[in-house]
Amino acid sequence: MHASTASIASSFGFNAAASLVGRSFARPRPVAFYDAETEIYAQGELAGALYRIEYGAVRIFRLLADGRRQVVAFHVAGETFGFEARAMRSFFAESIVPTGLTTVAIEETGHGTPELMALALESMVRAQEHLLVVGKQNALEKVAVFLVDLFERQGANGTIDLPMTRTDIGDYLGMTIETVSRSFSKLRAMGIIRLESTRCVKVLNLTALRRIGE
Questions:
Q1: How far is Cα 126 from Cα 22, in angstroms, rounded to an integer?
Q2: Strands of 200-203's sheet in order across
Q3: Which of 5, 35, 127, 176 has minimal CB crowding within 10 Å?
Q4: Helices vs. strands in the chain: H and E counts, helices first
Q5: What DSSP string describes 99-133?
Q6: Of 118, 201, 120, which is closest to residue 159 (Cα–Cα)?
Q7: What is the C-alpha to C-alpha distance for residues 214 and 17, in angstroms, rounded to an integer?
Q8: Element (H, E) at 134
Q9: Distances, alpha carbon 22 to alpha carbons 11, 25, 106, in Å
Q10: DSSP symbol at 27
């Protein structure tokens, strides 16, 4: 259920941003390797270490009472996840593709932790932005904002890697897979993006893409 190699041990619980005071990062641990579609941690588990993605991608989601899945975040290489507001995990985390993670425990040091605080605040801002995206009425707007966000996180060469499936994107944006696919096709027809493959998008007109999402 967990990593195929290297052990991952839990350390201190992480309880909201107030718990960051007087804590700092411990030394990162060796890389743990996860096959695609592998659980990293489960909803209801005791919260502990944070995770940094060395390569690959991770989805964060919750299972609703009716069995539906609600994806609340995607994380890509270089990002840290695992922040929790309570002592228990509120969400599931799964690798989307083969992924390498390092775990970073939170330890008591008596020193301030600006790096950790900044990461926690960034995570909170992303959660707030996700609510704004889901609240948009227009499907094309949702997909445009989603692509702009990924572009800003990994599109240095104008290309966006999409490790997630169209189903994942639909569960994240509150859309059906058909509507997601139609929105991609419309952006392509408008000359704003080019679909290099189902998992790779070339942004041809970032200004127009931003304008649609505004």
A1: 24
A2: 159-161, 200-203, 193-197
A3: 5
A4: 5, 13
A5: EEEEEE-EEE-SS--HHHHHHHHHHHHHHHHHHHH
A6: 201
A7: 30
A8: helix 114-134
A9: 15, 11, 10
A10: P
> Does residue 200 sit in helix, strand or coil?
strand
Sheet strands (E) in the chain:
23-25, 32-34, 39-41, 50-55, 57-63, 69-76, 80-81, 92-95, 99-104, 106-108, 159-161, 193-197, 200-203
User: pLDDT (tens digit, 9 = 90+) per residue, 153-211?
Assistant: 886 788 999 999 999 999 999 899 999 999 999 999 999 999 999 899 999 999 999 99
Q: Which tokens belong to 181?
A: 């696919």
Nearest Cα residue to 166 out of 201, 204, 193, 136? 201
Q: Which is nearest to 83 in space by CA: 126, 112, 54?
A: 126
Predicted structure pTM score: 0.75
Instruction: Give the tens place of pLDDT for each residue, 69-79.
Output: 999 999 999 88
Q: What spatial distance separates the first Cα and last Cα of the chain, rounded to whole Å? A: 41
Reading the block at residue 107, the tokens are 């330890």
